[in-house]
Every structure is written in structure tokens, then in C-alpha cells.
């Protein structure tokens, strides 16, 4: 029996891995990759780095006005850009490979520290959870934090429990990477480290040479932004200073009173726990899973399973510090500020489940039944296997729909020169500039006359300048604007005055294209 189990387990792990890989690449199969405003901005910055040989010292802006992210994400995306010729879909495949590799690494780490059953449970959950599958299909800089934060927890365990100070090198490096990917999340990891040092009574580790070497690595990760700031008269330093003095109030636009924030942040994190740790968001599923998890932690306490209890102490410290930090933070609590926490919620479920797995057979059957129920429900959902046979029309940000628009414009132009103007609610038309640069120019051999694939030094772009008079052929690409329909109508009316309408065509994703001849 033991020999048979030893043969079956690798097979199960391989099958789960292949299924997880397949579920993640479904959008690639029908070209349903999401390509929105943020992705367009990222790809233009990568294009400037790879094609224009312009070394980026910063990338996108943060929630605090005047503070910009570091360039690591741009450099990260340079690899799929080079391999694919700039195809945005390659970025998603790259992120899928990253997520799968990180999960395999997590499996071996958990197996070494906490045990085989904990490792298998973590592996299956991270691979088949709907939240983790969906998070690997949208190319956005904060989303890799969902996987990277596991290694942050691992470093905390090695330093606080196993007293391996060498992990300070990796711990500080990870914090530096977090700041490159999402400042709004990374800033809260610093008080987490301080709290863990106090709770585990490990302040003596601050004397370690690895602590100072790691701190030096952290400071080096800010070097590109420091150079940028020096070149631009300390733009970011002054923005931070003005925030501390109350002059920069860009985070206070929708601030709640402090007493309300404590309640609202609690509700937000509870909702996150349900969404990120539960494959099925229904009370009749959530209740038994939560009760079983609590019973698992109680069992770990009764059996004095010290490794499990130590990781629980780390997880609860992380959540407590983030909750307090989120409550004191006055600005809106965007989803990307919480992007690294899903793995915390996941471990709070999978580790006690692994503990209970060693109990009576009835408990095993209950855990197995709940796991199969939840994961199978997520697999047949619209984001799972159902999305393979019925991908739907997609929305404005679906790359497939954008390519249809570009194809139409070129076929309609018939090889003649043309210009295009895009109405897009985010104001900056990065999506269409890049689509015409990458797909249109490459496929049809020429570009629109007014193509402007660039981002100004401060990372905040401008719309293509609309001339007072337009000669020749031009197209209006109209995205839906549910919040300001009158603004779109006014914009369209102004540009249509300059020409004669030849044709109008609608596309999936509620995109409309108007063909005009300048007069």
C-alpha cells in the first residue's frame, strides 16, 4: 500500500500541475488576453527600453501624487517583449510560467519546513484556486505579489524560528522588489518586520552582518528612483515631504473618519478572505471550511505542533499589522494594496486541513469532499473550463476585439494614409497607440500618420494632439463611457465637424469606429 501511494502521489502532482497550466492559458487559446490602460502604458515603456534604448529609471505613478514606481516591472516584461516581438499576449504566458514555478518552489519549501501533507495541500490550492488562476491571467505589476509574499513568510520563519540570519539577504531583497511592484503594499511590510522581531523576541538578530548586508541590498533597489529624483529636482522627495506636512492631500480624496475606517477595513479583509481562500463563495461552503480550519488549528495547539503554531503566529502578525496600517491609512484601499495577502489567507486554510488529514478517516473524507466540491465548482465556472468553449464577446480591454478594430481600419483604408483618434475614458490612449504600433504596423507595413508611441519622463502621458483641421482619411475609435456619455458625444461631435462621415461600424466590446474624410 505504501509503495502504491508513493507511485500515485507524483502522478497526482503532475496531473494537477498540467490542469492548472491549462486553466491559466485558456485566454491565450481564444486570444482573450486582457489589454487595458495599465498594460498599454507598461508596453510602451518596454518598447522605449527595448526598441528606443531608453533606460527607464521609473515606471508608473503611485497613489501618492508625485511618487513613481521603480523600473523593475518594465525590465521584467522586456524578456517576453524580446521573445515575442512585442506581442502583449506573451506577457500573460510569462506571468503564468512565473506563477507555476513559484508554486513548485513553494511546494518544496513547505515540505521541508512543515511536512509533506502541508506541502501537497498548499501546492494543490495555489494551483487550482480560482483567485490564483485569475491573478496569473492579468498582467499587472502588483499581482505577482500573491506568490512572492509566500517567500516573505518563508524568510520570516527561517529568521524568527530557525535563527538563520543569512535569510536577511533574501528578506530585504524581497521588500525592495515589493516597493518596485506596488508601493502601497510594500510600505506595510516594514512594520510587519518590526512586529515579528518584537513578538519572537529576536531583536538580537539586528546585530547580524547579514541584516546590514541585506539592508544595503534594499537601499540599492531604490537607486534608479534616487537617480531619477536627483535629475528632476527631488520631485518624489518633495512630494513625500509635502504629504507629511499636509500640503500634498492626494490620498485624502475619499478619506473616511478614523473610527469608520477600522470597521470598513475589517469588512474589506473579511471579504478578501472569503474571495481568496474559498473556491466557492457560498455560506454553506464557507461555514464548514472555516469551522474545520479552526478545528485544525485547535488540534495543532493540543498536539503541540510547534512548526504549525509558529507559522500561525507569523500569519496572524502579518494580518494584524496590515489591518492596523490599512485603518490608519487615509486614502482609498485599492485592491492592489492588498495584492500580497491571498497566500496568507490560503495558508490559514490549507495548513490546518493538512493537520486534520492525519486524524480519523471521517475527517479525511469531509476534507476531501469539501475540497473536491469547491475546486470542481470553480473549474466549471465561467473563468474555468466553461470559458474554453464559451469565451463570450469580451469587453473593450480584450485584445481580440482590439485587433478586430485595427484590422478593420487598415482594410477600410485600403493602403491609403490615415490618422486615428481614440476616445477612451482613462484619457490616455496607450492601448490604441500600442496596438497600431505592434500589430498594425507589423501586419500591414505602415503606421497611422499621427502615431505617437511614447511616454513623457514623469510617466504621465498625453492624448494625441487633435489638430484644428484634418485633411485626408481619419478614423474615430470610440470606447464606451458609462460614467460620462455626454463627454464622449461632445468629443465625437467636435471631430466629426472636420470631416464627412463615410462609414460607421460597431465591434464586440461596445467599441465603435467612425470613418471620415477631412473637408
Measure the end-to-end span.
Answer: 83 Å
The geometry reads as: globular
Strand content: 5-15%
Helix content: 55-70%
Number of strands: 4
Structural notes for this entry:
The protein has 519 residues and is mainly alpha-helical. The chain is built from 23 helices and 4 strands. It has helices spanning 2-24, 26-29, 37-50, 72-84, 88-113, 116-128, 130-135, 145-160, 167-181, 183-186, 189-199, 209-221, 223-231, 235-245, 258-277, 283-302, 306-328, 342-356, 361-379, 386-389, 399-413, 430-444, 485-496, and strands at 418-423, 473-478, 499-507, 511-518. It has a 4-stranded mixed β-sheet with strand order 1-2-4-3, with helices on both faces. Helix 22 links the parallel strand 1 and strand 2. It is globular and about 85 Å long. It starts with a helix and ends with a strand.
List the helices and strands and how they pair.
Elements: H1 2-24, H2 26-29, H3 37-50, H4 72-84, H5 88-113, H6 116-128, H7 130-135, H8 145-160, H9 167-181, H10 183-186, H11 189-199, H12 209-221, H13 223-231, H14 235-245, H15 258-277, H16 283-302, H17 306-328, H18 342-356, H19 361-379, H20 386-389, H21 399-413, E1 418-423, H22 430-444, E2 473-478, H23 485-496, E3 499-507, E4 511-518
List keywords for this structure.
mainly alpha, single chain, 519 residues
Give a quick summary of the entry.
The protein is mainly alpha-helical and 519 residues long. The chain has 23 helices and four strands.
Amino acid at each position: 500500500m505504501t509503495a502504491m501511494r508513493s507511485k500515485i502521489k507524483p502522478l497526482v502532482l503532475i496531473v494537477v500541475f498540467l490542469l492548472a497550466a491549462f486553466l491559466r492559458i485558456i485566454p491565450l487559446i481564444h486570444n482573450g488576453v486582457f489589454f487595458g490602460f495599465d498594460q498599454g502604458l507598461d508596453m510602451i515603456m518596454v518598447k522605449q527600453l527595448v526598441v528606443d534604448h531608453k533606460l527607464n529609471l521609473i515606471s508608473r505613478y503611485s497613489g501618492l501624487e508625485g511618487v513613481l514606481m521603480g523600473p523593475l516591472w518594465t525590465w521584467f516584461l522586456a524578456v517576453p517583449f524580446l521573445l515575442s516581438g512585442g506581442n502583449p499576449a506573451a506577457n500573460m504566458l510569462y506571468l503564468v510560467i512565473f506563477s507555476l514555478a513559484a508554486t513548485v518552489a513553494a511546494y518544496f519549501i513547505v515540505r521541508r519546513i512543515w511536512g509533506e501533507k502541508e506541502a501537497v495541500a498548499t501546492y494543490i490550492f495555489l494551483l487550482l484556486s480560482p483567485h490564483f488562476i485569475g491573478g496569473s491571467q492579468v498582467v499587472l505589476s502588483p499581482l505577482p505579489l500573491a506568490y512572492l509574499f509566500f517567500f516573505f513568510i518563508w524568510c520570516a520563519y527561517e529568521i524568527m524560528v530557525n535563527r538563520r540570519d543569512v535569510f536577511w539577504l533574501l528578506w530585504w531583497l524581497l521588500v525592495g522588489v515589493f516597493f518596485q511592484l506596488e508601493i502601497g503594499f510594500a510600505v506595510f511590510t516594514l512594520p510587519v518586520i518590526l512586529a515579528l522581531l518584537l513578538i519572537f523576541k529576536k531583536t538580537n538578530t539586528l546585530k547580524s552582518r547579514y541584516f546590514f548586508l541585506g539592508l544595503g541590498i534594499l537601499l540599492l533597489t531604490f537607486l534608479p528612483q534616487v537617480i531619477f529624483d536627483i535629475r528632476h529636482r527631488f520631485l518624489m522627495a518633495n512630494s513625500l515631504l509635502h504629504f507629511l506636512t499636509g500640503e500634498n492631500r492626494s490620498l485624502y480624496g475619499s478619506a473616511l473618519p478614523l473610527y469608520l475606517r477600522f470597521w470598513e477595513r475589517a469588512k474589506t479583509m473579511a471579504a478578501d478572505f472569503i474571495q481568496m481562500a474559498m473556491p466557492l463563495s457560498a455560506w454553506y461552503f464557507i461555514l464548514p471550511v472555516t469551522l474545520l480550519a479552526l478545528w485544525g488549528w485547535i488540534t495543532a495547539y493540543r498536539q503541540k505542533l510547534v512548526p504549525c503554531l509558529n507559522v500561525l503566529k507569523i500569519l496572524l502578525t502579518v494580518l494584524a499589522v496590515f489591518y492596523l496600517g490599512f485603518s490608519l491609512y487615509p486614502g482609498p484601499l485599492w485592491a492592489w494594496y492588498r495584492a500580497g495577502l491571498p497566500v496568507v489567507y490560503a495558508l490559514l486554510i490549507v495548513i490546518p486541513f493538512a493537520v486534520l488529514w492525519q486524524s480519523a478517516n471521517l475527517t479525511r473524507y469531509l476534507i476531501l469532499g469539501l475540497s473536491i466540491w469547491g475546486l470542481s465548482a470553480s473549474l466549471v465556472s465561467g473563468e474555468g473550463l466553461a470559458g474554453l468553449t464559451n469565451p463570450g464577446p469580451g469587453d473593450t480591454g480584450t485584445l481580440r476585439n482590439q485587433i478586430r478594430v485595427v484590422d478593420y481600419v487598415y482594410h477600410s483604408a485600403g493602403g491609403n494614409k490615415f490618422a486615428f483618434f481614440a476616445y477612451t475614458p482613462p484619457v490616455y490612449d496607450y492601448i490604441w497607440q500600442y496596438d497600431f504600433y505592434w500589430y498594425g504596423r507589423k501586419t500591414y507595413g505602415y503606421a497611422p500618420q499621427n502615431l505617437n508611441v511614447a511616454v513623457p519622463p514623469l510617466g504621465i502621458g498625453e492624448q494625441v494632439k487633435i489638430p484644428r483641421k484634418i485633411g485626408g482619411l481619419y478614423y474615430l475609435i470610440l470606447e464606451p463611457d458609462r460614467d460620462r456619455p455626454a463627454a464622449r458625444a461632445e468629443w465625437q461631435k467636435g471631430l466629426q465637424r472636420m470631416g464627412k462621415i463615410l462609414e460607421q461600424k460597431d465591434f464586440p466590446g461596445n467599441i465603435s469606429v467612425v470613418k471620415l474624410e477631412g473637408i
